[in-house]
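Entry for the shared binder. Reason: the reviewer on the internal report wants the predicted structure included alongside the sequence.
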Amino acid sequence: MKLAELARLLGAEYRGNPDTEITGVAGIEEAGAEHATFVANPKYAPLAKKTKAGAVLVAPDFPEIEAATLRISNPYLAFARAIEIFHPAPVYAPEIHPTAVIHPSAKVGKGASIGAYAVIGEHCVIGDHATILPHVVIYPNVEIGNYFFAHAHAVVRENCRLGNGVILQNGVIVGSDGYGFAKDNAGKWRKIVQSGPTIVEDEVEIQANSCIDRASVGETRIGRGAKIDNLVQVGHGSSIGENTLLCAQVGLAGSTHVGNDAILAGQVGVAGHCHIGDRVIVTAQSGVGHDIEPGKIISGSPSYDNRQWLRVCAIMPRLPEMLRQLQRKSKETAE
């Protein structure tokens, strides 16, 4: 693809030879003359002067460099679109594999692609243009919107409701039983029926082997546009706000409520019944056991304000020497 054509597809301004041939994308240090790359973080700007890439996606005010540039307001997003151009997603023909099992009472919209050994239960309703890959199981009474995409071995349990444009990666379980048990008079744990559904709103993506539990009563809800990474556990009765990110191995105990546009980084754990406000950022491996006001940045386990946590981290390596100084001072005072 010529540089000028790539610029047109991305809506970027090109500077350089319009006939430069671009055949793929790569990171700025690995890119060759046939690749497009990008600079979005200023700390990587020096690498742009040394890159061997055929073209670099940069912001409009980026300094001139030897390589050709594609100038656009959001280089990172444009690079993501360039990846799509050179590596288009597989297209699945609208057909139903003969080994798929679809209950006669189920309704599947037009243009569906249903793979081998997929199972769709009774009274399910699935919208138009669904892609359901092999071994996906949709339990009875599930409602799913248009443009659903479920990778192999994803499961949607009974009575759950999913909106439009939902993507389930491999091994996702939507509506697995919540972790609910009550001890009887003999001291044995008795299972509490998890009667409430899981609701997944439009444009949500849930990545591999994550589990979104159903509620004992009420519902578990994932808000529009939320993105959930691999190996995430969302406990029963929880709610996740719109456009919120839950990164890898986040664990939310039951009845956790997270606001809109929040980010919970990798391995964050949240105790049950906590309320996390809009736009909160919880940094990696933090343990949250309390409510968090909107807009806060929180770190540590137990978690507290990020700025204070940074100061504490800076002091920690100095503690042994500070202790020795204190002991010397105490000894001098005693003498």
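Summary line for the report: Residues 101 and 276 are 42 Å apart (CA to CA).
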